[in-house]
Amino acid sequence: MKIPSRSHVHRLSYVVVLLLLPLLSFSADPDSLQDFCVADQTASSISVNGFPCKPASEVTSDDFFFDGLTKMGDTSNIFGSNVTGGNVLTFPALNTLGISMNRVDFAPGGVNPPHSHPRATESGVVIKGKLLVGFVTTGNVYHSKVLTAGQMFVIPRGLVHFQKNVGVRKALVIAAFNSQLPGAVVLPFTLFASTPSIPDDVLTRAFQVEEKVVKSIKSKFSS
């Protein structure tokens, strides 16, 4: 039996390592290298994937507590809903920890319009009210269910989803994300209120409607 040469084995090892490197780098978020890294949002001259850390000597107990989700959001808008974010922008102690939460308030009939979170899976619990929760898969399959207080839902990362208050009273959801800043692509604003705007002829072809329909929708989102 022919025994492979040492150089051949080394070359084969290099190939295996090169093949595995992408899998290792994308398998999970990296673990934190310190107990915490409270975001220093004043360091505007530094650009990193996240925020630099506030010096530990400047960190106080108050940095680790946030009461922003205790306040009911104003739902007097075109959608009848309000999202209050508890992410790294409002709660800097979440920096590098890979978690965040939202509070979503709904007026009767209010909707959290179709949107997606490009950087996170979402799980949520209905605190009060009656909500229709739905999402669409990449295979164009629609999943939905009406939930009441105490029931949970999960939305896989990046999928378009919505919530609608189908009850007669106000509703409230608390949602959690596996990202310090999950991002939100809100389809009505993305498609009809971007800057600069998407050309009308693109939208008329995409939605198979007349240009006046597109202009009418855009006018509803103009400031």
Automatic annotation (TrEMBL):
Protein keywords: Apoplast, Disulfide bond, Glycoprotein, Manganese, Metal-binding, Secreted, Signal
Signal sequence extent: 1-27
Highest taxon of the lineage: Eukaryota
Keyword check for Translocase: no
CDD domains: cupin_OxOx
A matching Pfam family: Cupin_1
SS bonds (residue pairs): C37-C53
Listed Gene3D superfamilies: Jelly Rolls (2.60.120.10)
Record GO terms (molecular function): manganese ion binding
GO cellular component: apoplast
Subcellular localization: Secreted, Extracellular space, Apoplast
Binding site for Mn(2+): H115, H117, E122, H161
Annotated binding of oxalate, by residue: N102, N112, H117, E122
Protein family: Belongs to the germin family.
Function field: May play a role in plant defense. Probably has no oxalate oxidase activity even if the active site is conserved.
Annotated protein name in UniProt: Germin-like protein
Species of origin: Carya illinoinensis (Pecan)
